[in-house]
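Progress report, Aim 2. The chain analyzed during this reporting quarter is listed below.
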Amino acid sequence: MKMKLCKKLLKKNNILAISSGGGHLMELLSSLEEIDKSQVVFVVNKTGHTKETLKKFKHYFIIDPHISKIKYIINFIQVFLIFLKIRPNYIVSTGAGIAIPMILLGKICGSKIIFIETGARIFEPSKTGKFVYKYADLFLIQHETLKKYYPKAKVGRLI
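Predicted structure tokens for the chain:
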């Protein structure tokens, strides 16, 4: 019953791209270079950098929970409301923790989850990557050395 209701929420070819700002956002933008941006809605934390970088794209700003349980609750409420508006078929993320609630909600509702482990991780996985790995429909790593942590991941460089 839950899955049927969630499936009705999804729109055709709608992509939600979520990450924290800075390098994660730049990797996310780089990974979506070939995609028609009219189908993409970005969700990030609000900083001077993210406001400037995303001004020509559809976007929403949410709180970055970092390690605060209270902020994760606020983040989840924001994510839930955005999910209802966007109804993404695909959720693409480069991390960090800001993306976890959206990824979990998307997984429950049938969105395809694509996670790209940051290129900065060469020898050890990120906390977000370790958590999201089991939920991702496609998990990409940029360095072969991470295969021991993510055996089912696909290897490829994005930037």
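The chain has six helices and seven strands. Residues 7 and 109 are 6 Å apart (CA to CA). These observations will guide the mutagenesis work planned for the next reporting period.
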